[in-house]
Amino acid sequence: MAAAGLAEGIGEVVAPGGAAEILDRARALAPVLRERAEEIERERRLPPDVVESLRATGVFRMGFARDRGGPELDSVQQTEVIEALAHGDAAAGWCAMIGSDTGLYAGFLDRPVAERMFPSLDMVTAGLLFPNGRAEAVPGGLRVTGRWQFGSGVTHADWVISGAFRYRDGVPEPGPDGSAHGSVLVMVPRAQVEVLDTWHTTGLAGSGSCDYTITDVFVPTEHTFTFADVRGATGVLAHPEVHMRNMPGVALGVARAALDHTRDAAVAAGRAEDYRTQITLADCEADFAATRQGVYGALRRQHEVLATGGTLDDLTALERAALPLSRRHAFRTARSIVTRLYDLTQTSAIYRPSPLDRWLRDTTTMCQHIVAQDRILQTAGAHLLGARPSFPLALGITPPQR
Predict the structure, then answer these.
(1) What sign has the CA pseudo-torsion 72, 74, 79, 80?
(2) Domain 3-117 belongs to what topology?
(3) Distance of alpha carbon 395 from alpha carbon 104, whole angstroms
(4) pLDDT band at residue 1 using 50, 70 and 90 as cut-offs
(5) Apex CA 122: angle with CA 29 and CA 45, to 5°?
(6) What is the pTM of this model?
(7) What is the CATH number of domain 125-225?
(8) For position 401, what pLDDT does the model report?
(9) Domain 247-395 - what CATH class?
(10) Among 122, 124, 134, which Cα is nearest to 189's?
């Protein structure tokens, strides 16, 4: 079936409700995304019809609870869907991953508030969670002003979530843990946000991860939250680091795509008997298999504990550290695999629109995200040693509430 026909066909179908259906639709859309990848990169954002095709798979509603009519996919299932979409295109997979957090954020809001904010389960949220703006306390809420980077998917979002430092009467408010400056997450309608065309990057160009500004916007208290306070959700998704769990699906999907492409190209070019091709592909496949098992093994163990009523504190130190470590390792391994396959392919890989050229740039850019950085090593290592992690949220640790 032609790419346009498949995309249009998916777009006409009501988003499915089950994990198997969503995964099947993601897999069906992947070849379309592959055909559109050059266009997506050139446009530096997802075209509107691609966004609608993603929406129709059900990916954006994955995190909504069943009692809201959502599919409530667990973190393993979510990661599989993101992996399938990223196998088609890295930027689309990245935006799907970001946009699928809407239902997860809803769990940190009061239930009636979330129902008003998200009348459709297929709405998209984007934005930067790290505090970078100013939130001044006023009657009924906050006045928010600031500029944020890395608004992946902000060009097609319905709501924008942003971290902001709290002030009262111009003075920084302390955090609940006694820190000098507390922060909060604020939700602002996309119409009240100005997007700046700054996203000229090495890779992930199609994610539209532009800077954006919010200027003197009133945010009611009910549209704010912190990850320490789950107000509207229960179960395996009602935990502070839930939005990070499906991220490695992007890296795994891209690595799998690069391996499949290189193997098929080698066979087509008559290099199946070439020794260097054989050992390089096998070595990369070994790394991929071990890395993928590490990600899903850590997620499944977490799910096993949470699904039986446990908490993240019921994981052993090694099991808890395995979650951020396997996530980081997935991104770094994906970049390593693509780099080795790029070298194996030699000069033919350097010409655009070679997918290896694009995957090389995409995985390089992915690895600049905090979840793929050495701060994760310090965080996990400190946790194992009983010391202070620098990024405790990656472990699901939040400040104590006073």
Answers:
(1) negative
(2) Butyryl-Coa Dehydrogenase, subunit A; domain 1 (1.10.540)
(3) 17
(4) very low
(5) 60
(6) 0.94
(7) 2.40.110.10
(8) 57
(9) mainly alpha
(10) 124
